[in-house]
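Re-run requested by the PI after the first attempt was lost when the workstation crashed. Everything re-entered from the original request form. Ligand of interest: fe (ii) ion.
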Amino acid sequence: MLRKEVNDLVTQTGPGTPMGELFRRYWIPALLAEELPENDCPPVRVKLLSERMIAFRDSDGKLGLIDEFCAHRGVSLWFGRNEEGGLRCPYHGWKYDVEGNCTDVPSEPADSGFCEKIKLQSYPLVKVGDILWTYMGPKELQPELPAFEFATVPAEQTFTSKRFQESNWLQAMEGGIDSSHVSFLHSGNLNTDPLFKGAEGNKYNLSDYMPFFEVAKHDAGLYIGARRNAEDGKYYWRITPWVMPCFTMVPPRGDHPVHGHFWIPIDDENCWAWSYDYHPSRALTKEERAALEAGKGVHCEYVPGTHIPKANKTNDYLMDRQAQKEGRTYSGVEGIAIQDSSLQESMGPIVDRTKENLVSTDNGVIMARQMLRKAAIALRDKDQQPPGVAPEQQKVRSVSVVLPPEQAFEEACADDLRARQGVPHTSV
Ligand code: FES
Ligand SMILES: [Fe+2]
């Protein structure tokens, strides 16, 4: 349970809020690279941390993220003409470059110096992996580029998607570090989804519904270990790393690609659920890539031409009561991503955490909230740079492993929990 003021602090990310300022110290995913496919392609609307912006790629391939609204009289530059090294407002022709500098005001004499005084807010936009990342914080503190393993392996080893979710970012992220729900909500998928089925470890998930959680801190977040019973008194561990503020990685299953998420606030009531799948040491197979593109695993199908899931609030997520009754799906909703989004959206746009009743399987959630709150307050009151900004801290891995009872997972898996170039992940 959280007091109302704490719930407000950890859920609000607009300009000037403590959590909003915290998010602005990290590189965050802004767009899929494929959304700006070529020079002078159509500009794209981007809303992040409650700020409305326009992303565009100019004639030379330079990327920019600038204020959505024209400095003249506020027209949305989404209508703009992307031409000859800039984005031109279609109302009276003012033109901007990728850094938001006004480069032409056709109604004013060129030598008046007027347009030099006009500048829109702008942020860098940089491609790493399949993602265009932005940094919305103080320029002098801009960190090195992100180094998460899924974004730095060769292109044939990785796949990324994003979907629109109608809820606050934090309740979505909390689903990602609460792996106790897998034995219930996703139980129907472990033996059927092409990206999950066949792994040795699945049987432990499906036979032990009372995982014991052990949470260990690392430099920049947590390792959340869920322990279930295996054979001969041994334990099956699933270890989920969480890196501040919103990166998680699901523990792997057999030799399947390993997946995870970012939850990025659009505003306080909506977020982007980013999902990736990658294999650290081999290319994705044709079958795997086809399944990922078809929305299997943690990905989803879309309303054509959008990043809105096909199964969404307006159609009750295509609920199938018969499938629920027969146990083909536990909740009646198809697909892991939509099973999560349906329940997280059902909590309301910002869940009221003053009313919850937490149990021991929520320990990871409790500790993550504490770390976020502490970091946001330390930044606000002492200008202390938050953890997780340095690339070295982002090179983590999830693990699934069977260990003898006397072994602590942090020691037994110390190497396995770090990204190691070309080395397969540790997985059963
Ligand atoms: S509103 Fe953009 S040029 Fe006038
Ligand atoms: Fe889930």
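Saved to the shared folder this time. Residues 224 and 311 are 30 Å apart (CA to CA).
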